[in-house]
Design goal:
Length: 196
């Protein structure tokens, strides 16, 4: 689990709970896929211990629903100069909170890991997000899909997360994330790949 502070204790599933079924995707290159046009000749795929390439597609996990628990999906971590898969696990529910998983964000030409965290539902923004920031016109790139940027609520304010390239998935399509109003607050519904 990525994060700061003391490691989180993982609850032990009751004996009657079935283990999640995990179906791996086809193997992807260990270094992931390029964030943009890819490194120029001679450019290293790693800079100061951080990758210049996005992680490979996540492993498909199909956990069983368990009352009183939340499934925290697995993620790719950067270890020993390569991406390694960290499987998901169950966490005890926390009333009034929702789990926001870890993710990779492109910052200054390298990918930076942002840890997952429990987020208070009452700390959700009460004002709508500002309009999207203008992004450079992106020319089509065979085999890749442009994922547009979005406004993220972070530390009590909206922060722009720029768009990036992701490798196309023949059997899936990208559904963009969106902000939805829930009573007096706004909640971000994450985008993701969906089967066609």
């Amino acid at each position: 689990m990525m994060g700061h502070g003391a490691p989180m204790q993982r609850p032990v599933p009751p004996p009657s709970a079935p283990a999640p079924v995990m179906a791996p995707r086809p193997a992807a290159p260990m270094m992931g896929r390029p964030a943009g046009p890819g490194p120029s000749p001679g450019q290293a795929p790693v800079m100061a211990g951080r990758p210049r390439f996005a992680p490979p597609p996540p492993v498909v996990e199909r956990p069983a629903v368990r009352r009183g628990y939340v499934w925290t999906p697995g993620y790719h971590d950067w270890r020993n100069d390569r991406y390694e898969w960290v499987p998901g696990h169950y966490e005890s529910e926390r009333p009034g909170y929702e789990w926001v998983g870890p993710r990779w964000e492109l910052q200054g030409g390298v990918f930076v890991s942002l840890p997952g965290a429990w987020v208070s539902l009452t700390s959700a923004p009460s004002v709508p997000p500002p309009p999207p920031q203008p992004e450079p016109i992106v020319a089509p790139r065979p085999g890749f899909v442009w994922i547009a940027g979005y406004q993220e609520w972070r530390d009590g304010q909206y922060v722009w997360v720029g768009g990036h390239w992701e490798e196309a998935r023949p059997q899936e399509r990208w559904v963009p994330g969106r902000w939805e109003r829930h009573g007096h607050h706004w909640r971000w519904r994450h985008g993701g790949w969906r089967r066609r």
